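Repro:
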Amino acid sequence: TGYIKLVRFARTTHEEFLQAADDLLSRGMKRLVLDLRGNGGGYLNSAIDLADEFLPEGRMIVYTEGRHSPRRDFRSSDRGLLEDMPLAVLIDEGSASASEILAGAVQDNDRGLVVGRRTFGKGLVQEHVDLPDQSAVRLTTARYYTPSGRSIQRPYGEGIDYLADFEDRFLHGELVNKDSVHQDTSEVFTTLKGRKVYGGGGIMPDIFVAADTAEGNAYLSALFFSGVLNQFAFDVADRERAALEAFGSSGAFDAGFRVDQALLEELKRFAAGQGVREEPSSEALRLAAERLKAGIARNIWGSSGFYEVLLDDDPIFQRARSEIGGA
C-alpha cells in the first residue's frame, strides 16, 4: 500500500505528487492511501489537477455557481496516471477547501473510499478587490459544489459560532460518535453509482473513525506545541545514533524498538525541566510513546521513517488500508 501525505495545496503540489506516485509505482504500489487530514486547502487548480489523475475523461470534478455568477464546470481530461489504482482518501475536521474539492470528487464519482471524520466545510469562491486607499476586500461571488450538487460550504451562523466550529463539534460528540454528526437529511444527493449522500456542508466520510480523545489531553498538547517532544526525540536519536542506525531501516526499527518505562520517565523529567508539569494519564503516555518513537525515526530516516512508524498505530490509516478496494 502506497501512502502520500499532502499538508497543503501549493502551486507545485501536482508536480510533487506525480513524482511521489512515480516512485511508489516503481516500487510496486498496488493501492494508494492519500492523506488530506489537517490540509486546510490552497490552490484550487492543484486540487483539480490531482483529482484528474484518478478520474477517466469527462468526469465532473467540481463546479462553481453564484447568484450573479454563471455555472462553471471543471471536468477531468484523458491523462489520469492513477485511474485504475484502488484508492482511499483520509479526511478530518481540519480538511478544508481544496481538500474538500478533491475528497468530494472522489466520493461522488465512486472512485475510492473516503475515511475519517467530516471535513470543515469551506467552499466559497472569493474575489480580491483593491480599494483606492490601498486597502482591499474579498467579495464572495459563488460557491463550490461537488459533482452530485452538494454545496461544500457549511451554514454561516453567527461569526463566533463559525469560528468555534471545532470546539462545538467536540462538545457535541461529533468527533467520537458518528450518530452525533449533523447531516441535512432534507438535502439528499446521489453519487455516480446511486449511493445517497447528504448536504449540510463539508464532506462526510464513507467510513467514520472516531478521534482518540486522549489527543486533547493537556499534557500531550503541552508536549507537542512547546516543541519539547521534538527536542527530546532529537536528543535521544543523537546520543543513540549508532545503535539506532544498526537497525538498518525504519521498518526494522519499528518492529524492534520499544519506548520503555525508563525512557518515558526520562521524557517526563525532561518535560518538567522545560516547564511541562501536568500529570499525564496512562492514555496520554501511550500516545506520547507513539509520537516519541516516530520522532526518533524521523531524526534517523527522515519523513518516510516518521510516517512508517506513526501510521502503524494510526486507526484511520489502518481502517483505510483494511477496507481499500471495496469502494
